[in-house]
Design goal:
By secondary structure, the protein is of the alpha+beta class. It has five helices and five strands. The chain binds FE2/S2 (inorganic) cluster (2 copies).
Amino acid sequence: MEKELLRITVNNQYYELYVKPKTLLVEVLRNHLDLSGTKRGCDSASCGLCTVILNGTAVKSCSILALQAEGAEILTVEGLADGSRLHPIQKAFLDYGAFQCGFCTSGMLMSAKAFLDENQNPTPEEIKKGIHGNLCRCTGYSSILRAIKAAAEDIDREKKA
Ligand code: FES
Ligand code: FES
């Protein structure tokens, strides 16, 4: 199958590469660009491990063909920190021990970021809905929910400072 040109910006870096029409976005990120922070699990849009932010929206990169992302801006977990400064969501996950094996964490962080970008003062119920597409087999979710709430408060404080 003939390869086609894909132009994407990932974590503020512009890439041009040739991909097969059936190549998934998650494959481009992990296999072509070496951004293995994005994990791969179910490959059927169910677990949320592969979540990245595409043009501001959290998407499951296993359910998108790479060529559908032509011209898009993508943020992966590798682009979340500002240099050595962790994003408030990353910091809160550390502070609240919101992970155990960590396999779900990058997808969870990206869903939380997209959610908090839209909703700066969420209720616990809204946070639950915000990450409903991300599964975690280890934590029981309560530490994750607490971390996202704390991150929202932290981001709010930073804005007011
Ligand atoms: S690997 Fe994409 S949702 Fe599970
Ligand atoms: S920390 Fe292990 S799956 Fe979430």
